[in-house]
Amino acid sequence: MRVGPLRLLFASLCWCLLATGQSIALDLTCPQSLSVTQTAANVPSGWEATSGSEPASLQRVAFYIGSPKDRGTIVPDKTDKQNNEERVTWNFVRGPGDEFWLGCSYTGTTVVLAQKLSAGVSQCVVHYDLLPSGSRLRVRAISFT
Questions:
Q1: Which residue, 16, 35, 81, 102, shows the most beta carbons closer than 10 Å to its own?
Q2: Strands (E) located in the chain
Q3: d(C-alpha 82, C-alpha 98), whole Å
Q4: Count of CB atoms within 10 A of residue 59's CB?
Q5: Phi/psi of residue 18, each to 5°?
Q6: How far is CA 131 from CA 107, 136, 143, in A?
C-alpha cells in the first residue's frame, strides 16, 4: 500500500506534536441557536400567555467544575479587549475527580446546553465580537487546548 505525501506529512506533524508534549487545538462551538418551547405557569386571571417562534440565539459561554445542573460557573482567569474583540481565557487545573463542563447560554431562556470536556483540555479561549459601546455582540469562536 502506497502512502501519499500529504498523509505522510500529516502523520509526521501529529507524531512531532505528541512527542514534544504539545496539544493540538480543538475547536468546538456551541450551536448558534436553539429552539425552545416555554410555557407560563399560574397565568393571572384576565391575562393570556403566548410564546414567540424565534429560536434563542447563543448569548454567552461558561465553564463549570461538575455538571452545570449542580454547580456555579468558574470565573475566567483573564479577559482582554482589543479592536472590537474580547478574549476570555479559562485555565483548567484538575484536582482528583474534577470534571470540567462547557455551558452554552441562550437569549430569552434559562436553558443551558452543556457538554463535558475531555480530560486532556487544559485551557479555553472564547472570542466575542464587541459592539462599538464595548458590549458583547456574539460569540465568534471557542478554542480549546
A1: 102
A2: 26-27, 33-34, 56-65, 78-82, 85-91, 100-106, 112-116, 123-130, 136-144
A3: 33
A4: 15
A5: -70, -40
A6: 17, 6, 21
Find where cell 482567569 sits: 77
Ramachandran quadrant class, 104 (left: phi over 0; alpha: psi -120 to 50; beta: rest): beta
What is the distance between the alpha carbons of residues 68 and 103, in angstroms, rounded to a whole number? 7
| pLDDT tens track, the chain, 145 positions | 444 443 433 333 333 333 333 444 455 679 999 999 888 999 999 999 988 888 999 999 999 999 999 878 999 999 999 999 999 999 999 999 999 999 999 999 999 999 999 999 999 999 999 999 999 999 999 999 9
pTM here is 0.75
From the list 79, 41, 35, 39, the residue with the least C-alpha distance to 53 is: 35
